[in-house]
């Protein structure tokens, strides 16, 4: 891939760096690489959890859509662009491993959406967040990306209607961010979380990620009932027996991912 580089450590934490200067805008090719990234993460069991970051000193974690792509678009070309986006972004959202956004720089427009598709978000206290589509005369996606995070509707609509920049503090108070830390601590905090997650049983990580995703579109009761079969499968696994026995023995579990 041209814009995404991957480094996986011995614990199964994959550090993904998005680097498309000057502002990490999403072009046609960058969208295609997001799909490729998702397929790569899921192709093997090497990755247990992925951390998505931008290079140190980057102007943006993701600066939104590549605006140069928009000027020549007519209506049909715009719909074709949506077809591409709708193939690529959901593929990343549905990766069956936990993902963490290490937001060491601003996230804007579709960059905010990309961050919302990560399971956990750690942000720099210097970063800002915006959905400026209204100032370009276009649509911001209707706010559904943020409604699924249970953010207050009034906050979402202010974000979309004003197009203004929101601070990391405001985004955390609205429920978008898990942690706000100094910029130099963003990646260490994200890696700390990733290391903790990577120590879990991989079949359990996959099952919990998938369950959380499909639960967003169901009632709590339907989502719970759908997990019953998967839960039964996990209960008879070696890792489940080991996890319970280790707890009872007062020791750390030794998972075999089976």
Mean pLDDT: 94
The name of the CATH topology of the largest domain is 2-enoyl-CoA Hydratase, Chain A, domain 1
Architecture per CATH nomenclature, i.e. the level-2 architecture of the largest domain: Alpha-Beta Complex
Low-confidence stretches: none
Beta content comes to 5-15%
Write down the domain tally: 2
Based on DSSP secondary structure assignment, what is the total number of beta strands?
9
Distance between the termini: 31 Å
Rg from alpha-carbon coordinates: 19 Å
| Count of individual helical segments | 10
* CATH class categorisation of the largest domain: Alpha Beta
Helical percentage: 40-55%
* Morphology call: globular
- State the order of secondary-structure elements, H for helix, E for strand: EEHEHEEHEEHHEHEHHHH
Q: Structural class, from secondary structure content?
A: alpha/beta
**Main sheet overview:** 6 strands, mixed
The H-level CATH homologous superfamily of the largest domain, spelled out, is 2-enoyl-CoA Hydratase, Chain A, domain 1
Please list the strands of the largest sheet in the order they lie side by side: 1-2-3-4-6-9
Keywords:
258 residues, alpha/beta, 2-enoyl-CoA Hydratase, Chain A, domain 1, 2 domains, 6-stranded mixed β-sheet, 3-stranded mixed β-sheet, 10 helices, 9 strands
Short account of what is shown:
The chain has ten helices and nine strands. By secondary structure, the chain is of the alpha/beta class.
Task: Write up this protein.
47% of the residues lie in helices and 14% in strands. α1 packs parallel to α2. The longest helix has 19 residues. It folds into two domains: 195 residues, 2-enoyl-CoA Hydratase, Chain A, domain 1, CATH 3.90.226.10; 48 residues. The protein has a six-stranded mixed β-sheet with strand order 1-2-3-4-6-9, sandwiched between helices. It has a three-stranded mixed β-sheet with strand order 5-7-8. The chain is an alpha/beta fold.
């Amino acid at each position: 891939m041209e814009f995404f580089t991957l480094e996986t450590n011995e614990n199964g934490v994959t550090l993904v760096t998005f680097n498309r200067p000057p502002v990490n805008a999403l072009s046609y090719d960058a969208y295609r690489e997001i799909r490729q990234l998702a397929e790569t993460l899921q192709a093997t069991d090497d990755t247990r959890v992925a951390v998505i970051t931008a290079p140190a000193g980057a102007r943006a974690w993701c600066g939104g859509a590549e605006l140069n792509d928009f000027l020549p678009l007519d209506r049909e070309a715009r719909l074709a662009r949506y077809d591409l986006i709708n193939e690529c972004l959901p593929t990343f959202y549905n990766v069956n491993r936990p993902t963490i956004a290490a937001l060491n720089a601003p996230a804007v427009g579709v960059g905010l959406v990309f961050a919302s598709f990560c399971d956990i978000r750690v942000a720099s206290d210097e970063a800002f967040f915006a959905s400026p589509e209204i100032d370009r005369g276009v649509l911001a996606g209707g706010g559904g990306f943020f409604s699924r995070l249970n953010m207050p509707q009034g906050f979402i609509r202010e974000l979309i209607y004003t197009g203004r920049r929101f601070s990391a503090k405001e985004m955390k108070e609205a429920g978008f961010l898990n942690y706000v830390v100094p910029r130099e601590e963003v990646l260490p905090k994200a890696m700390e979380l990733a290391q903790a997650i990577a120590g879990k049983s991989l079949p359990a990580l996959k099952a919990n990620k998938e369950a959380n995703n499909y639960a967003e579109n169901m009632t709590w009761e339907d989502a719970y009932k759908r997990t019953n079969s998967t839960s039964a499968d996990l209960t008879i696994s070696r890792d489940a027996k080991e996890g319970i026995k280790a707890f009872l023995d007062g020791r750390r579990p030794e998972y075999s991912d089976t």
